UniProtKB/TrEMBL annotation:
Pfam families on file: Bac_DnaA (PF00308), Bac_DnaA_C (PF08299), DnaA_N (PF11638)
Region: Domain I, interacts with DnaA modulators, residue numbers: 1-120
UniProt xrefs under PANTHER family: CHROMOSOMAL REPLICATION INITIATOR PROTEIN DNAA
Name of the gene this protein is made from: dnaA
GO cellular component term, pick one: cytoplasm
Name assigned to this protein: Chromosomal replication initiator protein DnaA
Cellular localization per UniProt: Cytoplasm
Length: 467
């Protein structure tokens, strides 16, 4: 037994089933969820959820649903609530993953889990199946802001030995770092199924190391780590200030590099910006390839939403809503996908068609949270700089094409990007009437359809202002 949960030896081709302790805890959690979220929402989304495999090594539990869409929605809407409920349920569950049940899935990729073997001999790290298809390289939408990280991750997972190690990927929350780690593990395990793979968060690394020291099992811990041919560590910033943990991590990295193993590490910032991390570790991490993932630009956000729309089914999501989502939810990709899932789910629940008014109503809180207060003055200055005119021309009475067109673009952007009313915008542009603003907006909308140069100008200004 391990903290009230039965530990089952794992062999290739087998699964680890939840036991009575987990079933009992799940019954209580379900009752609390039904009370908290309401009977209708519970019956629609949470009642069909059933227990899946459990990994005692990482204390990770799978919750199974019928489809990828349901998995995305339940994870996005209830993931934090589920994790908190399980962590406080009195059983050894630290992490919860919502995934499509294997009997409804197509071909399954590999996901790394780690299971205790019998104590007779030190256990190598092993890889087990059940990896969500959406975590593969094929499902990672690539744009200019993540292309280097994507290409480097593909090289790290490929059969040919990469020319660099370690690979250090950094970027903000929800931008796709963990997705790439899972995709690397999947590709690597596909061509080298017998090669030991180890994936864990830096926090988990620290906890296991501390536990091993307390139990006088540090040698077994070291052996397990050094057996890995692919080591993936997520969120390395969480070992900041932990001296003994950092020392062990450094020795692990050095030994693995010496034996030709592959190492991938992620963090929320570049190596040189990590405070409280040993300089020797930073030197090792920066000595491979450092690739960043910047916040998704508008074009990439549109591409991500288009990819989701292609597989979402009914109700259809019109272009206007896709454009609204891409422009309104800019903080991270995970939140963008969650907003899309919420719209589709509520459309299915209520039977209402998804249109712009519906999207604005349902996502008002998310839009407010993402709003950056772009001012008309910022827009005027950006347009003046783009078209190389004096900013004062935005408010002047001149009607020459060289200043009138940039002024119309600025009015169009002011209407599109700020909450200002038409009369307010007109007053800011030199006391013009609201009908002048309407004419400018309609003119630029028409020109974007017929004039590629104007459309390119507007896109460039939108990227600049939203950035």
């Amino acid at each position: 037994m391990k903290d009230g949960v039965r530990v089952v030896a794992w062999q290739e081709g087998q699964t680890i089933q939840a036991d009575d302790a987990l079933e009992s805890a799940w019954a209580g959690i379900r009752a609390g969820l039904r009370r908290d979220v309401g009977a209708r929402m519970f019956d629609q989304w949470l009642k069909p959820v059933r227990l899946g495999d459990y990994c005692p090594e990482s204390q990770t539990l799978d919750l199974l649903v019928a489809s990828d869409f349901s998995a995305n929605f339940v994870s996005g809407q209830f993931g934090d609530r589920l994790r908190m409920a399980w962590r406080t349920a009195g059983v050894a569950v630290r992490e919860v993953r919502v995934r499509r049940a294997p009997d409804t899935a197509g071909p399954r990729l590999l996901e790394v889990v780690h299971v205790e073997k019998p104590a007779a001999a030190p256990a190598p790290v092993v890889a087990a199946s059940n990896f969500q298809p959406r975590h593969g390289f094929a499902d990672f939408v690539v744009g200019d802001t993540n292309r280097l990280a994507f290409s480097a991750a593909q090289a790290m997972g490929a059969q040919a030995q990469p020319r660099f190690t370690p690979l250090f990927i950094h970027g903000g929350t929800g931008q796709g770092k963990t997705h790439l780690l899972h995709a690397i593990a999947a590709d690597f395990s596909a061509h080298s199924p017998a090669a030991p793979v180890l994936y864990m968060s830096a926090e988990r690394f620290m906890m296991e190391f501390v536990n091993a020291m307390r139990a006088n099992e540090t040698m077994a811990f070291k052996a397990r780590l050094r057996a890995a041919r692919l080591l993936l560590i997520d969120d390395i910033q969480f070992i900041a200030g932990k001296g003994s943990t950092q020392e062990e991590f450094l020795h692990t990295v050095n030994d693995l590099i010496d034996t030709g193993a592959r190492i991938v590490v992620t963090a929320d910032r570049a190596p040189q910006l990590l405070d409280g991390i040993d300089a020797r570790i930073l030197s090792r991490l920066a000595g491979g390839l450092v690739a960043d993932i910047q916040p998704a630009a508008l074009d990439l956000r549109l591409a991500i939403l288009e990819a989701k729309r292609m597989v979402a089914g009914d109700p259809p999501v019109p272009d206007a809503v896709i454009d609204f989502l891409a422009r309104s939810i800019r903080s991270n990709v995970r939140e963008l996908e969650g907003a899309f899932n919420k719209l589709v789910a509520y459309g299915q629940l209520t039977g209402r068609a998804i249109d712009l008014d519906f999207a604005q109503q349902m996502l008002a809180d998310a839009v407010r949270a993402n709003a950056r207060r772009i001012t008309v003055d910022e827009i005027q200055k950006a347009c003046a700089a783009h078209y190389r005119i004096d900013p004062a021309e935005m408010r002047s009475k001149r009607r020459a094409r060289a200043v009138a067109r940039p002024r119309q673009v600025a009015m169009y952007l002011a209407k599109k990007m700020t909450p200002r009313s038409l009369p307010e915008i007109g007053r800011i542009f030199g006391g013009r009437d609201h009908s002048t603003v309407i004419h400018a907006v309609r003119t630029i909308e028409a020109l974007r359809e017929s004039n590629p140069e104007i459309d390119a100008d507007v896109r460039a200004l939108l990227r600049q202002l939203e950035g």
